[in-house]
Design a protein that fits this description.
heterodimer, A: alpha/beta, 4-stranded antiparallel beta sheet, 10 strands, 33% helix, B: 236 residues, mainly alpha, flat
């Protein structure tokens, strides 16, 4: 479970997050939406201690994230918005193995996780390919595989479908559904609800660093339209 | 950590002509690099403080933005004070390098005030107006690209650093992390450079574009005179 209590994050004189409180339960499929600059990405960076609260707290499975970043980062997998920024090895297989190696797993387990993660994003058998030679969409899939291979208790994805073709989008969405059903909390940051609205249990909407709507899509739909979020079917 | 980059504003320093600011900086640097006596450095520290206050730039922000440079500067007196053998630490030996590096630090503070208050295109315009021919064009473009590229490059490195930390990369040795960041950073820098080149060509890059309007007013003359007086103080 991820619990955010009265979280404040400031950039100089401006507040990116202004006393945000929310709770994300295990197995929940949660969307975080809002216009540009609403604080979505800043919020999820707190989930695995990549940002430090100016006030308030973020607890992951009962532990203060900033007090134990290692525990937070083991529990929360993160896929960033730009895949090119998060690929850290020369080949696909080495990159996906980067996280499991840091967990100190044995080689057989690492290989199993790498193969499973690559299969989940439709890239089975491509572990020896050079990362730099992949297209943008393929790099995005490798970035997702890198997070999946950590087998985190909670998975956060920032605009995970950007640059993916329809087949890759379906593969990723199905995998996220599976993870959620298996008890992994899935948090997706997105501008665009169309791909996710029918899959998510809940939508959290931010505007100007504050939570302005929180609930099942059908219940918050009108409020989302008010803050300029693209809605399905419009 | 926020980099010091140009931010629009209405401070007295924002309102100055870029040439007055450049002239003042040169004067300040000449004064700073004269004999580094404590009274001279104290006086220059006051001047730097006034410049930062007028630019509404916090010295703490400058320290945070340029911390690697300040760390290296601070290292010099420390290294000089250490000895291989008793008494191991000789504080008196640190005094001279401390004074020497202080002047570099002061120039950094004043330079940061310039960066925070001056649009890149004005710097380029001033250089191309006053350095004739191809040399001025190259210098102008070089300065403009450097100012634009460095913050982007820093953001890229930061993003890689965060991505590594998110997958527990900080459990690896410093050498391993530094190697990965260096390779990834270089690769990203080349990709960025390619894209930048493409974008410049797509928007009709010109070696000699229409320069921004520069206006040298009464206040600018006084700032230039202040810079000249600072430079002269080096020879007194």
């Amino acid at each position: 479970m991820i619990e955010v209590a009265d979280l404040v994050h400031e950039f100089g004189d401006s507040r990116a997050l202004d006393e945000v409180s929310l709770r994300i339960d295990d197995g929940e499929f949660c969307l975080v939406v809002g216009p540009n600059g609403s604080g979505k990405t800043t919020l999820v960076r707190h989930f695995n201690a990549l940002a430090e609260p100016d006030a308030g707290s973020v607890r992951v499975d009962g532990t203060e994230a900033i007090a134990d970043p290692l525990a937070a980062r083991t529990a929360v997998g993160m896929v960033f918005q730009n895949p090119r920024d998060q690929l850290l090895a020369a080949t696909v297989g080495d990159d996906v193995a980067f996280g499991p190696e840091n967990l100190g797993l044995d080689r057989a387990e690492i290989d199993r996780r790498v193969d499973g993660a690559l299969a989940a994003v439709g890239m089975a058998g491509r572990g020896d390919e050079r990362v730099a030679a992949l297209s943008g969409g393929e790099q995005a899939r490798v970035a997702i595989a890198g997070a999946l291979a950590m087998e985190p208790a909670h998975l956060v994805l920032d605009e995970p479908l950007a640059g993916l073709d329809s087949r890759a989008r379906t593969a990723v969405l199905d995998r996220l559904d599976d993870l959620s059903r298996d008890g992994t909390a899935v948090v997706v940051v997105t501008h665009d609800l169309r791909a996710f609205a029918d899959r998510a249990d809940r939508v959290v909407a931010l505007a100007d660093g504050r939570v302005v709507a929180d609930g099942p899509f059908a219940e918050v739909r009108d409020r989302l339209a008010d803050i300029g979020v693209d809605l399905p079917g419009e | 950590m926020r980099a010091v980059v140009y931010e629009p504003g209405s401070t007295p320093v924002h309102g100055l002509d870029v040439r007055a600011k450049l002239g003042f900086q040169v004067g300040f640097a000449v004064a700073a690099f004269a004999e580094p006596t404590p009274p001279r450095l104290a006086a220059l520290a006051v001047v730097a403080g006034v410049v930062l206050a007028l630019a509404q730039l916090s010295p703490l922000r400058v320290l945070r933005a340029y911390w690697p440079a300040f760390l290296i500067l601070a290292g010099s007196p420390v290294v000089n004070a250490l000895a291989v053998g008793p008494p191991w630490v000789r504080p008196a030996e640190a005094a001279e390098p401390a004074l020497a590096v202080s002047r570099v630090a002061l120039v950094l503070f004043v330079g940061a005030a310039y960066v925070a208050t001056t649009p890149v295109r004005e710097t380029r315009g001033a250089i191309q107006r006053h350095v004739p021919g191809r040399a001025g064009q190259l210098l102008g473009v070089g300065v403009a690209l450097t100012f634009r590229f460095i913050p982007v490059f820093r953001r890229d490195i930061r993003a890689r650093f965060d991505a590594s930390a998110a997958r527990l990369g900080d459990q690896r040795s410093a050498t391993d992390r530094a190697g990965r960041l260096a390779v990834a950073g270089l690769s990203r820098a080349f990709t960025r450079a390619d894209r930048l080149s493409l974008a410049l060509r797509a928007r009709c890059f010109a070696w000699n574009p229409t320069p921004p309007a520069l206006r040298f007013g009464r206040r600018d003359y006084s700032v230039l005179v202040a810079g000249a007086l600072l430079a002269l103080s080096a020879f007194v």
